[in-house]
Amino acid sequence: MCRVRCRVHIQVSRQGSLSSTSVTLQLLLRFVALACAALHTQACLHGAPVTRSAGPPSRRLAVRQQPPQMNAVIVKNVRVFEPLAGVLSLPRDVAFENGRFVSVTDCNSSAPTIIDGTGRTLLPGLIESHSHPETPEHLQAFAQNGVTTVMSLACPTYAACTALTNLGPGFPDVHYAGNGVDIPGNQHEQLPGSHPLNETITEPEQAAGWVQAQVDKGASFIKMTAERASVSPTLSDAALTAVVQAATSHRLLSNCHAADFNASRQALDAGVNIVHHSPTDVAYDDVLLAKFHTPPTFNPLALRSRVSVPTLTIMRVMAATMPNQSFVPAQDSVKALHAAGIPILVGTDANPVLGPTFGPSMHEELANLVEVGFTPAEALRSATLLPARHWMLRDRGVVALGMRADLFLVNGDPTKDISVTTNIEHVWIEGVQVL
């Protein structure tokens, strides 16, 4: 059982006066909300972490070593984005040392680095929920843009996956799916260049062996592909369901590429945890939204719904380059998911073949979410706290004592103008300054 000490400063109201009862109630509610945000990623999720199953590969079993002993950093007089409450704190001092947030009074360094945060905002590091990095340079581009954790949804080779997980301090923390699973002759096989290769199965009975192969590669979660049936062979409903069941047996989250309406239906009927992409043919209707409002097959967080990573950035590209496709259904689908209260995570599908870019596209995706009706604070929550929760990363997503010092400093207030997230002055990954 972990215990957390924290000091919380909250701005209650910027306009007018409130009764003392209203002020007290708002303060109490926000304090409870912020305390929950700090606690949930410590050790208060349901049971043991599940993004890495038990198995031979050392990557899954190893606990990431803390970075070398580092001089403390104190950012003074800075406002901090509190993702659960969706507000900025009052100006305060934030300290971190040896890769973790600490109280200012607990800093061991006799001469900490001091940074003036006046007029600036400190945010938790961004979590990219769908990408395909292949080189250290791709990760460096993420880091320079405030992205401190990266989900790789398929690798060109197993070696490419593992090569990005041991690069040392200052690189984003990478979690990967190994390869995705598809059917022979699928559309993804026709993509040019170094697009991550899917592996294939033809029958549901092959699912268990395929998932075991990804577990043997050290996969943190499982990825499958439901293709556009109008242009490509695609896995059957039974095969997709079998993959989800095999992933569940290893306590791994299942993720499905689903870029049109029917593929989304297949993914949801199969019981996946996270549906990736949004349709460019037909927007989600009430029937499909009802399917989102059902629990996944593997449900360690006792969720009442599935999760969406709509990747609007690349859906805009696909709609512009593929025949008979439109960006409007993708936008309308995200609007419907948002209105229905479905958890939405920021992912871009950044890749070296079709784009989007590694790093800058995260800020494009934040803007895309605001464009379809998110408040800036909601968009930021979808790139910090929510992915930390739904990817089972218990040590990040908020700025709180004991958590990983993954953070970035911007000039301005991104809760008023989401473009402020690009005004980056400093980035730290596990306490190591990268910008």
Automatic annotation (TrEMBL):
Pfam families linked to this entry: Amidohydro_1 (PF01979)
Keyword Electron transport carried by entry: no
According to the UniProt entry, where is the signal peptide?
A: 1-37
An example Gene Ontology molecular-function term: hydrolase activity, acting on carbon-nitrogen (but not peptide) bonds
UniProt KW keywords: Signal
Q: Which residues form the Amidohydrolase-related domain?
A: 121-434
This protein's record includes keyword Signal: yes
Q: Which Gene3D superfamilies match?
A: Amidohydrolase, Urease, subunit C, domain 1
Write down the InterPro entries for this protein, in alphabetical order: Amidohydro-rel, Metal-dep_hydrolase_composite, Metal_Hydrolase, Metallo-dep_Hydrolase
Which PANTHER family does this one have?
ALPHA-D-RIBOSE 1-METHYLPHOSPHONATE 5-TRIPHOSPHATE DIPHOSPHATASE
Put simply, this protein is called Amidohydrolase-related domain-containing protein
